[in-house]
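Ticket #4471: structure output looks truncated?

Reporter: J.K.
Steps to reproduce: submitted the chain below (87 residues) through the standard prediction queue, then opened the result file.
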Amino acid sequence: MGNCFSRSGMEEPAPTPNKNANNRAQRLKENEGHKLGDVSVPASRDDSKREAARAAEERFQKSQNDLKESQSKLKEMSKKSRADKGL
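Returned output as attached by the reporter:
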């Protein structure tokens, strides 16, 4: 009875991946290679590490400059406040 229904003629083609699917794995695959420290290309790995270090250094210097500016503004405001109060 089971041999009557042969499946050899009813095979369907393999499903193709949906390009518009909201699939996290698919999005990660598409974005691959756009990360800092990507290990797939050894030459770019060193360059990206240098770029990351340079960017971190720039952020640090900017934060230090902002800190100095805010401290100087605070000092000036404190002096102005004392002068206004007559101290």
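Triage note (M.O.): checked the attachment and the full token line is present. Helices lie at 24-31, 42-85.
Status: closed, working as intended.
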